[in-house]
Specification:
By secondary structure, the chain is of the alpha+beta class. It has three domains: 36 residues, no CATH class; 132 residues, Aminopeptidase; 38 residues, no CATH class. The protein has seven helices and eight strands; from the N terminus they run βααβαααβββαβββα. The protein has an eight-stranded mixed beta sheet. Strand 7 and strand 8 form a beta hairpin. It comes from Megaselia scalaris. GO terms for molecular function: arginyl-tRNA--protein transferase activity. This is N-end rule aminoacyl transferase C-terminal domain-containing protein. Pfam families: ATE_C.
């Protein structure tokens, strides 16, 4: 699923939260998503900085898997699934400042790690691999929040790497409640598995794919 930018926050607030059109403003967007008390830190999975927070990330992942998916996980499971990436960090003239490769985007609140977005930064897109969070902060709707932050992140990277202009959210299963939030971001596209062409999400839901 790819998502293009352009008034996404405003469209989301109007469609999902039924805000009147005049309510979602740039100042509100900036206060909520740019000047948020939640601080983001991007770390390369092959870096020393990542190793310093590895145990903290794993404990958060383990808590998430048990409480949300009822799946106990070992540290080896965590490393195999979200850390041991075949992608190597690459920095060149076409890459953003942090380069291409696999990263963990950490969400910190009051010096506590509350969520992690696992991202692959590629030449043409940012691919959202996985997202896990502290269940104690479920009331913050961190899944939706992270999607908006990752979309903003993609737009920011595109300024220095013009070919990198898509945000890939992975698989979408319409009858899976945990994936429904992906369809709330507009405009969204699905790849047809038979024709390998992109169609809008609404077309896909109506039987076009």
């Amino acid at each position: 699923m790819f998502i293009r930018g352009g008034g996404v926050y405003k469209k989301y607030q109007i469609k999902v939260h039924k805000d009147p059109p005049e309510k979602p403003t740039f100042k509100q967007f900036e206060r909520f998503l740019v000047k948020s008390p939640i601080k983001l830190k991007l770390v390369d999975v092959h870096s020393d900085a990542f190793q310093e927070t590895l145990n903290t990330s794993f404990e958060l992942y383990k808590k998430y898997q048990i409480n949300i998916h009822n799946e106990p996980e070992t540290k080896e499971d965590f490393l195999d699934f979200l850390v041991n990436s075949p992608l190597k960090k690459t920095v060149n003239q076409s890459s953003p400042e942090d380069g291409f490769g696999s990263f963990h985007q950490q969400y910190w609140l009051d010096n506590k790690l509350i969520a992690v977005g696992v991202l692959d930064i590629l030449p043409y897109c940012v691919s959202s691999v996985y997202f896990f969070y502290d269940p104690d902060y479920s009331f913050l709707s961190l899944g939706t929040y992270s999607s908006l932050r990752e979309l903003e992140f993609t737009q920011r990277l595109s300024k220095s790497s013009p070919l990198l202009k898509y945000y890939y959210m992975g698989f979408y299963i319409h009858n899976c409640p945990k994936m429904r939030y992906k369809g709330n971001l507009s405009s969204s596209y699905l790849l047809c598995p038979e024709t390998y062409t992109w169609v809008t999400l609404n077309d896909g839901e109506s039987g076009a794919i």
